[in-house]
Amino acid sequence: MVTRARLLRYIGPAFGIAVFIIAISVLWRELRGERLRDIVRHMDAIPPSQLLAAVALTALSFLVLTGYDLVSVRYVRTDLSYRRVALASFLNYAFSQGLGFPLLTGGSVRFRMYSGWGLSGLRITSLIAFASLSFWLGVLLVGGIIFTQASPAIAAVLGLPPYAVRPIGIGALVVVGAYVFWTMVGRRIFRVGEWRLRRPSSRLAAQQLIVALCDWALASSVLYVLLPAEIPVSYAAFVGIFLLAFVAGIISNVPAGLGVFETVMVLLLPEPVSQSALFGALLAYRGIYYLLPLAVAATLLGGYELLRRIEVVRASSAAWRWEPLLAPNLIALSTFAAGAILLASVATPLSPPRVAALTRLVPMTLVELAHLGAALAGIGLILLANGVQRHLAPAFRWSLGLIIAGSLLALLKGLDYEEAIALAVVLGIVLPARRHFYREARVLDEPYSPGWIAAILLALSVLVWLGTFSFKHVPYSPDLWLATGPAADSSRFLRATTGVVVVASIVALSRLIRPRAEPAPLPRSAELARAHRIIAGSSDAMANVALLGDKELLFSEQGDAFLMYAVHRRSWVALGDPVGPGERWTELAWRFRRLAERAGGWTAFYLVGRHDLPLYVDLGLTLLKVGEEARIPIEHFTGGRARAAASLDAAARSHGATFEILNGDDVEPLLPELREVDARWRAGFGALEKSFAEGSLVASYVSSLPLAVVRVEGRIVAFACVWLGGDRGELSLDVVRTDPAAAVPGLFEFLVVESMLYGQSEGYRWFVFATVPAEGLDHGVLAPLWSRVGSLPFRLGEHFADARSLRDFAAPFAPVWEPRYLAAPAGLALPRTLADVTALIAGGSGERDRG
Question: Are 327 and 429 in contact (CB under 8 A)?
């Protein structure tokens, strides 16, 4: 069943596709009197001096773009060198502007790079939000200046009276002025719902506006110098048109505003400009401002990968720690681009002289087959790019084969050596990166996100539009489908497009008939028994949470590892790292992500350790430190630890408290008494945790786990369920209950200390005391929401007034503090995921969004 939430995921991509189709329809109408060869001729006729000026202005523009990141880094008060900030900025804008990188990869370059340099996800989110604020302030400032100072020219372009244009500019300047005024005298925090903006200094605000002004001036100048000299429009009016076209491209949700930007420019620039000359200039602008930086970024990463393989950069590899985080996305983008090149080539006419030379060497039938083969290789690469981004080794191998085949087919179908060279460059980027593709899962098992589906549909739309535009002068007849020969370009296009559509339809149909993933049912006794066997071989005591039976379990294909998870709304949240052999973790985590995506959900991992953080980054998640786990070494209780234990034990022991460990059958007769203690504790404390009286909790602990019990005069006054890790690595306590009616001081301390001593006597190495909320969470735009996550009770935390008192309790035992993280989606999904995790921590209902 398709629900409202599932439909909402497709609104953005569907809107982008609809706008794109409208835009190219308008372009078709505006260019109806032009031919493709005329557009190409005008592009080739642009003087070299203008091209060099555009390249120089592009370099300056990308240099200025680093200012957005530099100002944002200062706003979040992070000390990073300009070299790193500039590198992150360049790669981010090269990818995002080049081919709509966020749509294709579902992640931000900034998140990946800045997290690799140690910034928290919270700071990165604030950094990105502040950079976006700077950009839109620039839009308002430039638009305000142009619409007020050049209102007659802008009004003439838009076909509006001047008095209708000037108020728009004044309104934009008022908004910018209000922002500047707030930075000088306003309140320290500006709140909008769950979001908040900490007031920047007025100096920082001035830097924001200066960077934005320079950015728009340079970006617009790149296109302005490429336009024909006879263009009858002033630079000021042109900047206004450029601004409107650029913003329209952003709002359209089409990657890089493709088609939308061009449509607005064609519609708004004055008629005397030749449409073919204008469109030729727009194509040159796309190549210089969008594709050239992307090629530089790709060469930068591909060259590093090659040098690394021959060990030239081993000494400096620490400076490139971000490279593994970006490489799979770059290879996916390059694979998609290679496919797009092949599809574009089959939609345009062949060069007659080259075809004549080719047919003297090979039969025409081979040329026809090569043309169809190039189209199929193109759609194959576009469909494989999704698997490449997901680290699939089969997708990588198939992509290599298709890129090589595409290069040969480009030569066989028309001696397109330019196309073959471009594919060879892509091959040089892809080939050295084999080490990043370690998954042997089936390519067809991986789901396509709405963004990927939109990207594929856009590529097919471009194929159809470009081919139809190229051959619009050829009247249609049924004979075209079978026509062959050097001049049968339109026939080859029809056959190639049909082949591409058939392949894409088969893949789409295979996706539609596949059953949609649903969360697994709660585990039965057989699954719990299997989990218990796996936990026995794991040193992680927290893995025992699985035995409560209140979380879904996902087992590895081999059955020797699992992860536990719960679903709330759209968030699929795994608790802790996977349990079992480490070699199973990677595919298990990817399978979990695949299930969540097939159900239309987001993937998150809560309370994961630091040792496998690269795995979660590979999954496209950002890392947020949520707490620190206190691990107390208990192998040797001497010195200060022994004195602390004796001190904490004394009060309850003086009242006759005794400690014992019970198992299985010994626990069952005590259940009525345990439930009474649990009820009194909950009544006095108002806890959010599950009641021990619940059947699943009781059954799990009675059948699987030992119980620590404290008695005074034969009556149970406290108890706790004991988590035991395999290999006697660690133990911990859960569901700690003390009877407030017992009037015995120090019951909790006595229970904890005696459990440590029990673990020491049994040969355990670590006692996992508690997970304490991380300090310093009050930063950035997500702080109000995040503070609720950080303040919720963690294991054993409900027995302390705050995190500081918990730390003070553990301090005499000299704990080792291990960081714990939440791995969650970056970008706009992050606040929703945080809210869902918060609900699950607080004992939410586990409401599932089956959309």
Answer: no
pLDDT band at 8 (very low <50, low <70, confident <90, very high): low
Closest to 603 (Cα-Cα) out of 840, 828, 825: 825
Instruction: Render pLDDT for 395-438 as a digit per residue (tens, 0 to 9).
Output: 999 999 999 999 999 888 888 888 888 888 888 878 877 877 87
* Beta strands at 707-712 and 715-724: parallel, antiparallel or unpaired: antiparallel
Residue 34 CA: distances (Å) to CA of 232, 238, 270, 468, 714: 21, 23, 17, 13, 97
Is the pLDDT confidence value at 700 over 60?
Answer: no
d(CA 682, CA 70): 51
Residue 816 corresponds to which tokens in the numbers above? 């080792």
Question: Please, which residues have CB within 8 angstroms of residue 485's CB and are 6 or more apart in sequence?
Answer: 364
Cβ(218)–Cβ(60) under 8 Å?
A: yes
- What angle do helix axes 292-309 and 82-99 make, rounded to 10 degrees? 120
Q: Model-level pTM?
A: 0.69
- The SS3 of residue 211 is helix
- Helix, strand, coil percentages in the chain from 3-state DSSP, rounded to 5: 65, 10, 25
Torsion on CA atoms 690, 733, 523, 577, rounded to nearest 10: 120
Inter-axis angle of helices 393-414 and 417-430, nearest 10: 160
| Residue 559 in tokens | 């059955």
Residues in CB range of 204: below 8 A, 6 or more apart: 71, 74, 75, 183
Long-range (24+ apart) CB contacts under 8 A made by 174-178 are: 175/140, 176/137, 176/140, 176/141, 176/144, 176/209
pLDDT digits (tens, 9 = 90+) for 252-266: 767 777 778 888 888
> What are 536's two structure tokens?
């026995």
| Residue closest to 784 by CA, chosen among 193, 199, 200 | 193
**Whole-number Å distance between alpha carbons of 336 and 294:** 13
Residue with the two structure tokens 């930063």:
779
Query: Is residue 647 helix, strand or coil?
Result: helix
Strand partners, 723: 732
Q: How far is the C-alpha of 565 from the C-alpha of 577, rounded, in Å?
A: 11
Angle between helix 292-309 and 48-75 (nearest 10): 70
Q: Which long-range contacts (CB under 8 A, 24 or more apart) does 51-59 make?
A: 51/226, 51/284, 51/288, 53/225, 54/222, 54/223, 54/225, 54/226, 54/284, 54/285, 54/288, 54/289, 55/288, 55/292, 57/218, 57/221, 57/222, 57/225, 58/222, 58/288, 58/289, 58/292, 58/293
Structure confidence by residue, pLDDT tens digits, 614-651: 788 778 787 777 778 888 888 777 767 777 778 878 88
Q: Which residues pair with 768 in a beta bridge?
A: 631, 732
H or E stretch covering 738? strand 730-738
> In terms of Cα–Cα distance, which of 351, 361, 371, 484 is closest to 418?
351
